Queue: 2 jobs
Job 1
Amino acid sequence: MKIGLRIFYNPAWMGGVNYVLNIARMLRTLPEGEQPHITFLTSTPQAEEIAAEHAGLADEIAPFAKAASLKLDFVYPATQLPEAPFGAPWAGWIPDWQCQHYPELFPPEEQARRFLQYRELARGPAACVFSSQQAIEDTAKLFPDFEKDHWKIFHFPAVFDEGFWQEGSGDTDTVRARFHVPDDYLIVCNQFWRHKNHLQIVEALAARPGLDVHVVMTGAIEDTRWPDYAASIRDLLARADVARRVTITDRISRDEQLALLKGARGFVQPSLFEGWSTFVEESRALGLPGLLSDIPVHREQSPADSVFFDPNDVESLASALERFVADPPKRPSLAKASSKHAAYVADRARTFMEIARFTATRFDPARHDAGAVIAQAAPALFDEIGEHPHVTQESFDRWLGNTRLSLRENPEDLARIGGMIAESNSAFAAKSDKLLVQATLAKAPPEMRQRFLDYDPASDEAERRERIASMQSAIDSPRARAQLASQNFLFRLKDFIRRKLRS
């Protein structure tokens, strides 16, 4: 099976980069006969650098724009429609609905963007992947009328390089010495955002000044959205009885973070909300016992020896810490943890492959191709402007602008989408030529505009016959018939929009 993994680049969301790279690492743990052919797909210079740095995890690296020509069976992930490939089976990914649970953490425009993009991912493609059962349940509450048979859960695991599991604490001892960390400590590895709830930990330590426990927190104390929150943490750390039991590392490298994680006695995860906690998965891999906030996703993850506490009750965490210190669970050896985790990762990898095969089988280009989904979504969203708090004229304009951006290098798909919308019975159809097609061409590179003007599927009978001939061997299959119908539709477009541009 040929799988394309899209390498994201977003300096504000490196979790997305690590998510994709971990999928590649996970698939590489399968026996050789089960491993798919992996292609890293890139669309920015930064993504190309990341792909090159991790080239050993893939069989090839290719531009995302060429996904259709690579004959891929499955392309993943797309967190919004403009990230979906044209001409290849694909699946959307909805990590979580944090923007609905904690709207105060997001600007209104970001809430609206996520709502519109996630809604179309839940409705349009052949498959939509969710990181947790809670994400599925949240989506079902928001859109109770949507079909759900193509919604799939993928609990992503932590995957480490082989060298990580080697015995010996040299790296850990070196890093501990660098940050003056004692031998016995608990660890929390989260950004210091308000919803990550570090404040509860220092408040719990303040409430138990005699409790003999040390907590290491990786990262820098800052949350630009809520500066008072960071100040509250610093105020408590000014107390000597709290400061002596806490180490704040500030920003450290990934290797340093993992070294500290390997040396910890256990972990604390106090978050108010998680999509699927990478930190918990990394702790699970090592067999670390942990104290977790009692939220649905943590209950769903439930690593061994978990102790749950109320994330809104300082006394609940303080008591949990006391019990943990009084009778700490034993953590397994690295060798035992590695063996157990290898079986867990293999199970997750096979689940991912099942999702890939499901998507490839279900994919109907007339319904699920990115162009077809956009052609269905744009008129539907346009009709709903003003009827839903997240579907405003401004949010629709942002959504459409983002969509146009993805079409500037794809003139053939632009023509196809424009033609499909123009033939639909919708209010947006009368406006699509200007709002979608001409607006896209206005900002497109000159060579792309020329390709659009030269594009003439109706007259290219030789190509048409060749494509039809290539399908004859499987013409009786539903997928082949759908592909043929899609091609016939393309060849019926005849000069769509070109006449408008030249008139």
Job 2
Amino acid sequence: MNRALRRAWSTRQNRPVHRRCTALAAVAAVSLTLAACGGDGGADQADAARQAAENPQSVTGTVTWWDTSDATNEAPAFRELVARFEQKYPNIDVNYVNVPFDGADDKFKTAAQAGDGAPDVMRADVGWTPTFAALGYLQPLDGTPALKDSDDYLQTPMLSNTYEGKTYGVPEVTDTLGLLYNKEHFAKAGITEPPRTWDDLRTAARKLEQAIPGTTGVFVNADAYFLLPFIYGQGGDVVDMDSQQITIDSPEVTAAIETVRDLTAEGTGATDTSANKYTNMLNGFKAGTTSMIINGPWAVSDVLTGKAFADPENLGVATVPAGPKGQAGPVGGHNLVVYAGSPNLAASYLFVEFINSAESQAYAAAENNTMPTRRSVYERPEIAQNTVISAFRQPLEGAAPRPPAPGAGDLYDIFTPFYERIIGGQVSIADGLRQAQQKAKGAVPGFES
């Protein structure tokens, strides 16, 4: 089967073509064990790094890449980059697999723990990287081509890739949450500037619903990650790094949820606790039946397909409003990481280097309206003149880094069902937060709950 047919078959099935034999799986398991024991990677890893750096065209093999980007709106750009990589390195095949983001972390951990089925390279959420590294599932990239021109990376996105003095990934894309709004709606309601505080947002939402009958002023996603700007506005977080405590049941989180409740009351806004809450939020905004949402740059390409934004200039982007003690969205994004048990380390290093080069980042950012992680990319004309990327620069500059504690990224999934029940009225704030705090016990090793 030739390369094109093989890639098409793999994509159509949405799963990797299984090329590894049992012996390679055993090698992967041994490599993983060495990594988990905290070794320096061994001679094989050093040889792979040396070969990739000194004689890249001699590298052969197959790189399986789990890409967790949006299959419809973002993945096409990455497929194109894969084709460009294979053209540059004809002796390396890429087995591209688009893996749904939800559940991808558990899928990777299951495969890595079994020593069979894990990809060579993965697009991992910034919150997953320290967790994977602590478990011994990632290959350190220090001294490899994967870290080429690392001083070009923005400091904050790079922070999520280091753990105990080693570098386990490179930041592929960064983001934060911002306030997206419909400029035409604002004009009809006589609103001249985006709201600066949550009180301003409440006032604006009420004006919008009065001026445009049938419109929802603001839609707030009932997801724990989307609660973070409200928590930051109260001066809190879901963990306290200084005291090493999980702080889901803190007064700051309580106050944040009270703000959300107020904003989603009848006559102001709405929320949704169903499994389709994110999609429903996005669809309402695209259709012009919702005036404001909180979302990130990853959603912009999809937003611009909606009839309300047939004119892209109608989309407004601003920093999330401020609470009484702060104003920030969380720093999000994705890193490229290499599996510790990969039998194709040299090829994987070259793949990461290529996909995350300044040229590749500029291409993907321009195609997807996403935020690059390399400083130099922002100076390129196609990025500097991109109005969406420019609009998110200000929210990103004031964004709050996510806690670097292994396991902290799992807290959002743990917390969300309890947050949904609180917002849906099935449980009080106090009881819901207490239950979530108990459920989170042990999720962040070394942290009390």
